[in-house]
Design a protein that fits this description.
Layout lengths: L3 H5 L8 E10 L2 E11 L4 E5 L6 H9 L5 E2 L2 E4 L9 E4 L11 H5 L1 H5 L6 H10 L15 H14 L4 E5 L7 H14 L4 E5 L3 H7 L2 E7 L2 E3 L16 H15 L1
Parallel strand pairs: 3-8, 3-9, 6-7, 7-8
Antiparallel strand pairs: 1-2, 1-4, 1-5, 9-10
Helix pairs in contact: 5-6, 6-7, 8-9
Length: 251
């Protein structure tokens, strides 16, 4: 495999995210309000919380695709806007079934009327282990392969910010661990905000872990596990933190 620099040598400098006064109401009830969030540049921040607490809406708000949530302010740490600077990876792979894998990976460029960098796309497919599937249609791929293709497509966008909504939740346990490791390697040095329901996933991948809970929802104290991601899944220290998170979520 080529080294990471060969894929990300032209990657834009990482920038952080600052959100102020986030608000979301549903059916007349406040989900969250006056919510502030800071995401450190070049680091992975993982967001946990029970279903319905507004994690996906918060992520979509930052991505600029949420009609239901609002914010008093949303900027990058360099003072620029978020719009046009974030790549969004859904929990579904969202591959177009009539396109080859290579064409799915380069879809963003072609939709913008740009000539896709096929060399970079093939390099990314090699990084995620899909060189032999470049001309295959999505229905010929396993679930893990489809998620790897979606990850390659996200990286192909070459944005300084990467927003991920439970991208590994539909996978079996072993495939999930392998793709977590792969994502941590390929996204190293980028600014990542990842939503997950899995405390162990958050603790393996996050430099910083935030738990959103309550009504209206608030962030609890941040967790910052020691060591660099991806951390070993069998680390006893992580499992102790998992137990604490589950206890807090159950309250």
């Amino acid at each position: 495999m080529p080294d990471q620099a060969s894929v990300d040598q032209a990657a834009p400098a990482a920038v952080g995210i600052e959100l102020r006064g986030g608000a979301l109401a549903y059916a007349g009830q406040e989900v969250f309000r006056d919510l502030d969030l800071q995401v450190t540049a070049g680091r992975t921040t993982c967001l946990l919380g029970p279903s319905g607490v507004g994690k996906t809406s918060l992520l979509r708000l930052i991505a600029g695709i949420s009609p239901e949530a609002s914010a008093a302010g949303l900027t990058a740490s360099d003072g620029g806007p978020i719009a046009g600077r974030a790549a969004y990876m859904d929990q579904r792979d969202l591959l177009l079934p009539w396109l080859r894998v290579l064409d799915n990976v380069t879809l963003g460029s072609r939709l913008r009327g740009q000539r896709p960098d096929l060399g970079r796309a093939r390099n990314l497919l090699e990084q995620v282990g899909l060189t032999d599937q470049a001309t295959a249609r999505p229905d010929a791929l396993s679930g893990g392969m489809r998620q790897r293709a979606a990850l390659a497509r996200t990286l192909m966008e070459d944005r300084p910010l990467v927003l991920m909504d439970e991208p590994f939740s539909s996978l079996d346990a072993l495939t999930r661990l392998r793709l977590q490791d792969l994502a941590a390697r390929l996204l190293a040095g980028r600014t990542v905000l990842l939503v997950t329901h899995d405390p162990l996933e958050a603790l393996r991948l996050g430099h910083r872990v935030l738990v959103l809970g309550g009504s209206p929802a608030r962030f609890g104290p941040p967790l910052e596990p020691s060591g660099d991601p991806p951390r070993p899944a069998d680390d006893p220290a992580l499992h102790g933190l998992v137990a604490n998170i589950l206890h807090d979520l159950a309250r």
